[in-house]
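Course assignment 3, question 2. Fill in each field.
Student: A.L.
Task: Predict the tertiary structure for the chain below.
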Amino acid sequence: MTQLFSQSTGKSYPFWVVCCGMLRSASTLQYQLTITLLTKLGLGRGLGIQSAASFPQLFRDHIQERAILVIKMHEYSDDVEALVVSGNAKLIYSYRDIRDVIISWMRMQGWSFEQILERRFIEDSCLYPYEKWTSLSDVLITRYENLVNSQLTGEVRRIAAHLGLDVAENLVQWTANNHTIENQKAQIARFDYVQKGVQSGATSYNPDTLLHNNHIWSGAVDQWREILSAEEINKVENIAGNWLDVVGYSRFTFHGDANPTLEAIRAETEVSLISRSTSALIAPQESGFPLTTGLVCVMPNERVVEIPWALMQLPHNGTILDIGSCEATYLSTIVNPGRILHCLDVRDCQADLPENVYFHHQSLIGNDLPASYFDAILVLSTLEHIGLPHYDQQGLENSDVLALSEIRRLLKPSGSTIITLPAGRSKLTLWYRQYSPEDIKQLFAQWQYTVDYWGFRGGAYQKIDESEVTSFDYDYAHGSGAVACIVARILA
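Answer field:
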């Protein structure tokens, strides 16, 4: 290795900075902050994403360069370790609750939870690199939650101190202000990923910023509590439980029962759930998409199936009740001179509803609306959430059954309820239920009903047979793997 001395930093050249943080844990942000400081100071530059296999050639290509060179690398590299040991490299590392890493990775790459386990993602892509990278000297370690929940100026100063850089406060502020989540989203929106992006798995990224086209979902912590099922949480913690204990993340345990009941799950999660932004669940374009092209419905998510389908089931005239109306984008479509629309939600969103709508700020279960009053009751992607400790609700056992009893009470004898549900293998997560065909048969045993199933396959929603439903599951990148569209009437 060529030994060149810089009086400004006291380091040998070429000197390397490796941003080697855990996947989906803000290592891209650390890379951006680092190269911004170095380029503004005229001391170095970034060389993008590298692998353990590509690094030796990269090192040879730049061996004469008189600069501090920054790379991003997730997998462990013996060559980088040798540079650290020899004093010719420093590491910048970030880590995150592995349960949230899993959620973020599934959303970005479109993996299923089963693929996470089959491909040993936890062991090989998270735990092993963590153990190796953090065991080395000259490594700056940042916890993801501390990074995203605090001002970026603190992380800029920590990076500068780690690298021995004398940075003026105005540069610290400028660097932090230019890398807020809002600015990152704006960069993603402006960049032409089709023409200029570099393909990486199921996504592509900007070779300068390293931001993927779907890089930022929400950045929130503890998303796993709302998305992973109890069974999935237990599987993760069986693998990574010791690591969670060591770094200070609480395990999610169900007291005294290895196979917790619904009641236990709800009681355990009622006080610990973090509010979820429902805007992430509803595509802003949802009401503008056609229902079908033949038997195919193109994503963004299941809303492109259920909303047009449900609106076509409504009577042209009559009194309509929509349940779970907050954030619903289709309400203005329902209102016409022949219809009277009532909306019900446990959340207070009256100010956001269309004019000439009657709003009832209450729960469906135990409501005080008049019996046998409505010609149709619309329940779109709502029944699966009712009675779970979320969306400002208290946990309640058998709440979907109770909700249907309330709907029966409110319907006129000739009326119908129009319901959509996530379909697939039978599953209860911490914020929604997923129904198998057998579940639906049991739930609607006291009703006269029809059901159509749509499944996401080949990049689009398509009509599927009942026998295929249990092969579908929630897709963390898009939404429901399959959706059940039900019209039910009271049995005579």
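Instructor remarks: The chain has 18 helices and 20 strands. The first helix runs from residue 27 to 41.
Grade: pending
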